[in-house]
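Justification of computing resources. Each target in the renewal requires a structure prediction run like the one illustrated here; the chain below, 199 residues long, is used simply to show the kind of job we budget for.
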Amino acid sequence: MAVSQGAIMAEDGKETLPTSEESLLSSLFTEIFTSPLNLFLLGVCALLIYKIFRPSDGIGAASGPVEPPVPKMKRQDMTLEQLKQYDGSGEHGRVCVAVNGKIFDVTRGKKFYGPGGPYAAFAGRDATRALATFSVNDVKEEYDDLSDLSSMQMDSVREWEMQFTEKYDYIGKFLKAGEQPTEYSDEEDAKDTKTKKDD
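Resulting structure tokens:
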């Protein structure tokens, strides 16, 4: 049985004419997507949406000046006093943060951790307690043994540690006062660099 143009086949096999709403939608759809002006405007809208939601790659005039990459720090363990030198305000501009007994070079994230950043309180400090309690201001001025943190807070600390490990360069251990630093060789630094590149 031949079906006439514009007709719809109903469930019972009989041919029916479209309702006025279906006809209206069909003609509206045809009119929108066949008009050259409408196609042009649709393309402009798609381009604007793409520009708004595309990931920033740092290319273009709006991104501002590009800072040269900072060379990798040598592997070293630090006490809190040594760590405080890396708060982003020194001539080297480096920013280091301690998390769960490990020190990370977060200079790449300077807009967050450097002077004026939302997490500047972590710069050159042990951020473990602040990350565990979700309070930026909960940073201690002395070595913090974290013994009073709950198991849930320590789970959160370990998750933060994993995130820092994946994103930033590990520098060394965070030392208690009087604890001796490890002597690291150049081979260990080279091995760390190779491991980061392989990841």
